[in-house]
Write a structure and sequence with these properties.
Length: 263
């Protein structure tokens, strides 16, 4: 029996003798099935073909990824004993560098990846919003589905359900850290850090360029408004707004709403 990984989105499936007939995450319009068809791999194969990349995203904020890039190419972040988001490769080097985890929290289904492997390796729970329960392809007792609009993982680390890209799309608010004076949001791509760092953006589907309704984006802004943050750290290496993050969200929401308004 084998736990297959989708090579397009890195979702891991339960033990089976053959690869799944399809990947529901890729079949959804927010992702895609590659033109040459669905391909499958395993964590063991990934360990043979890829190497760990563990380095500071910011001084004091450890990032964890792999080379060459795999699937969507996101990297995870380690914040005060919490792994934020997840990436497929998990090997002895990563386990050694991470040490211990109190919890794992993941922004949305595109980054669930090998989360159960991580939870078992570090003997910790995974926090996912209950609105995204249907997108968990490998159920496991380590997964905790939380409800409502916010959940404190530990003092100073709070999950906020923003929705948008996924109904249960969540970000992690960091109240204070050496690298986050004034607070920070770890956003995955629920709030997308874009090349023009004065702004962020929001989408229903990034690869297929399907926008969100203006009222949904306005709702995201309303949920973020009570929280203080200067930095926004996105899902890929280097995707960081270093200051004025809250103002960037405000101006971006205004711009977005104007752009999608009826003529």
């Amino acid at each position: 029996m084998t736990r297959f990984l989708c090579a397009a989105c890195s979702t891991q499936f339960p033990d089976s003798a053959r690869p799944p007939e399809a990947c529901p995450v890729c079949d959804d319009e927010r992702q895609y099935v590659p033109e040459d068809g669905q391909r499958w791999t395993t964590l063991d194969e990934l360990r043979e073909s890829h190497r760990a990349v563990v380095r500071d995203e910011l001084p004091g904020l450890l990032g964890i990824g792999c080379e060459p890039s795999f699937a969507i190419g996101q990297r995870a972040l380690l914040v005060d004993g919490v792994l934020w988001d997840c990436q497929a490769l998990l090997d002895e080097e990563i386990v050694s560098r991470v040490g211990n985890l109190d919890a794992i929290a993941i922004s949305h289904a595109h980054y669930y990846s090998t989360m159960v492997e991580w939870a078992h390796a570090f003997e910790c729970p995974v926090y996912i919003h209950a609105d995204d329960r249907e997108w968990v392809m490998r159920p496991d007792p380590s997964i905790i589905f939380w409800e409502d609009e916010q959940h404190e993982l530990k003092p100073g680390l709070t999950l906020l359900r923003l929705g948008g890209h996924y109904a249960g799309g969540q970000v992690l608010h960091v109240a204070s850290a050496d690298w986050a004076e004034g607070g920070a949001i770890l956003s995955g791509d629920i709030v997308m850090v874009i090349p023009d760092r004065r702004y962020v953006s929001f989408m229903w589907s990034y690869p297929n360029l399907i926008p969100l309704p203006a009222e949904t984006v306005l709702g995201i802004a309303e949920k973020l408004e009570p929280w203080a943050f200067e930095r926004i750290v996105g899902a890929w290496w280097g995707r960081v707004i270093h200051g004025d993050g809250k103002a960037a969200v405000r101006r971006s929401v205004d711009r977005y709403a104007r752009a999608v308004a009826p003529p």
